[in-house]
Amino acid sequence: MANQKEKLFSNFPPVSTEEWMAKITADLKGADFEKKLVWRTNEGFNVNPFYRNEDIEGLNTLESLPGVFPYVRGTKKDNDWYTRQDINVIDFKAANAKALDVLNKGITSLSFAIKSEEVTADNIKTLLKDICPEAVELNFSTCHKKSVELTKIVADYYKELDVDVMKCFGSINYDAFKPLLKKGRDCGDWVEQAATIVKASASLPRFRVLSVNAHLTSDGGAYIYQELGYALANGNQLLSKLIEAGLDAALVAKKIKFNFGISGNYFMEIAKFRAARWLWAEIVDAYQPLCNHDCPNKSEGGICRCAAKIYTHAQTSMFNKTIYDAHVNLLRTQTEAMSATLAGVNSLTVRPFDETYKESDDFSERIARNQQLLLKEECHFDKVTDPSAGSYYIENLTVSIAEQAWKLFLEVDELGFYDALKANTVQTAVKASANNRVKALATRREVLLGTNQYPNFTEVAASKIMKETSGCGCGCSSEGAPYEALPADRLATSYEELRLATEKSGKTPTVFMLTIGNLGMRLARSQFSANFFGCAGYKIVDNLGFDTVEAGVKAAREKKADIIVLCSSDDEYATFAPEAYNLVKGKEIFVVAGAPACTEELKAQGIENFVNVKSNVLETLKSFSSKLGI
């Protein structure tokens, strides 16, 4: 068998990079390689169409092993992660019953969101009744003003239970900068409050009580390098200020938890988590935290290597989720979950697919749980640590994202994350990125299936929307706030507002495809136009073709068309377009599908409307809706 393999490989001699480039150049037939095949990312670096072994020579990331500083390949030697479900606590007995139920369905981590006015010792006892804190990761969040009180109550509860606290993992989601990020309000004396909460959690050494909620910037529309760069600046601000306040560096580092979002950029997200472990380890190591325990994981100088291990929770993004064609959200969350788990996160929340328009129900929560369980039980993602290691592509992505995020970190850290927020630097940058992505969606340079490409023409959604916004959960108002908050809209918001306006108008415009002439071109353009106008929720009437323009216009009027779209070839438009335009005579909106060479001649004859691949889909549809009185 070995001889057969040797013979097989001998039939395929190695191909050099020069030979690959020669073949690619020949196939491009004179087209520019850089323009055609090299991808300029939103993160500010280029991605080549192929990578080879020589592209990873000399990369520091290749020298790392799982569980070994600087932890590029993972902070642990296995790839198990906590399967988490978030529970919004309305009724404490009901929340407890739900928690006990889902713990029997594969969940190993729970997160409870509690209203500030309901943070009491009795409520916590009710909430955690019959839940063994040594067997499940427990996480809590409330308004930041009540986080210290919540921490003390949880610490007292664990003490009363007399459990082994070294087996109890969890977190208190105290985010010192959330008021600024979400509401544009100052954090007050956050250093004192953060120090107090660290001290209050002293009896819970495995509890992380200082949160870096990077998912807020991700959900706001930030690019991947921005999410990571700002997260590092956030974490370093906590670390440096609390050390200045007299707290031990190793203690503070072990109290910080990073909560990341996961976008749909599959390979880059894998690289992001790898880069995050690496960069955070270097930041913590710069403080030279001393190890105060008899631990094998320390340097010769007694520097604590455990403190440099980042603790990452990940949750699927909300920014790219949609109301229309919402089941596509399942595909999005599944690839996002794959990115995070392959990258080696500590815990993961897959958000239910219907969260964009209603409170999740038993069905959507069950599906979300099972998405993680499938990755464990059927795909065995928990059995392989950092499978992307050595990948020419992902290793290069890891280094490139690390470089961009580090550059941003240094820029923000020079001012300080807190001061950068008060200067609106972070919010303005994230808003600019979100706006760029919205523009890309409007012109279809970025695609959301079912929203700006291949919409479900007949779907209606107004009746299923049961909530407008998710809010921040603390009840604090942003009215009159002195600082900017992060953007709150999702990527699809503008499209959805346009389509909902069509639904609520009580009149659905009819778009008629007047297909004529060249068979291939008319079919291609009618399909393009149907997808184009379907994004606004218009009724689409397609056709196989007409022998004459007059017959097409007549059929359109029989269907009571509001818009007539002429679909033919560029050569035939010079004849067909003026004829159709004169027959329409302004009774319907007349549109030409394409950008023919005779466009200027057609415009000179009064034809105004053209749709093609260069059109701004969103703005064009808004103008049509305005003309139709929607």
Describe the main β-sheet briefly. Answer: 9 strands, parallel
Shape: globular
Task: Return the CATH architecture of the domain at 61-82 and 175-426.
Answer: Alpha-Beta Barrel
Examine the coordinates and then state which fold CATH places here, giving the name of the CATH topology of the domain at 61-82 and 175-426. Answer: TIM Barrel
Strand order of the largest sheet: 7-6-5-4-3-11-10-9-8
Question: How many β-strand stretches?
Answer: 16
Question: What is the helix content?
Answer: 40-55%
Fill in the keyword field for this structure.
630 residues, alpha/beta, TIM Barrel, Rossmann fold, 9-stranded parallel β-sheet, 5-stranded parallel β-sheet, 23 helices, 44% helix, globular
Write up what this structure looks like.
This protein has helices at residues 2-10, 17-28, 33-37, 92-103, 121-127, 147-161, 178-183, 190-200, 215-219, 224-244, 249-254, 266-286, 328-343, 362-377, 392-415, 417-422, 425-442, 493-504, 519-534, 549-558, 570-584, 599-604, 617-627; strands at residues 39-40, 46-47, 82-88, 109-113, 137-141, 170-172, 207-208, 210-212, 256-262, 312-316, 347-349, 510-515, 539-541, 563-567, 589-593, 609-611. It is an alpha/beta fold and 630 residues long. The protein contains 23 helices and 16 strands. The mean pLDDT is 94.
